[in-house]
Amino acid sequence: MERPPLLAIEIASPSTRQYDRTRKKQIYGDFGIPDYWIVGPDPNKPELTAFQLKNGWYEEDIHAAGDDTFTAKRPFPVAFSPASLVSLGR
């Protein structure tokens, strides 16, 4: 039997936003992926939302936008800002 990954990360686009937040969450949850993050890569409004699988459903755990710090303890400790994900190195 295959084991699910600890984390799935999606890079959202306007055309898949609804699908990522509904059907993909259901598919990943059914497979047992404990953590699911969605990155909104809009350079003017970058954001990241983390969900945790609890009782068969994903619940929003962390949301950060722009220069706010996204800090997660699971599935591993990490901290960064969504803006750093879309930085052009300037």
Distance between the termini: 46 Å
Order of helices and strands: EHHEEEEEH
Query: What amount of the residues lies in strands?
Result: 35-45%
Major sheet characteristics: 4 strands, mixed
Overall average pLDDT: 91
Q: What is the chains' assembly state?
A: single chain
Number of strands: 6
Widest sheet, order of strands? 1-2-3-4
Instruction: Give the overall shape, derived from the CA principal axes.
Output: globular
Helical region count?
3
Question: If you had to describe this structure to a student in words, what would you say it looks like?
Answer:
By secondary structure, the protein is α+β, with helices and mostly antiparallel strands. The chain is built from three helices and six strands. The chain has helices spanning 17-21, 23-31, 82-85, and strands at 7-11, 35-40, 47-54, 57-65, 70-72, 78-80. The radius of gyration is 13 Å and the shape is globular.
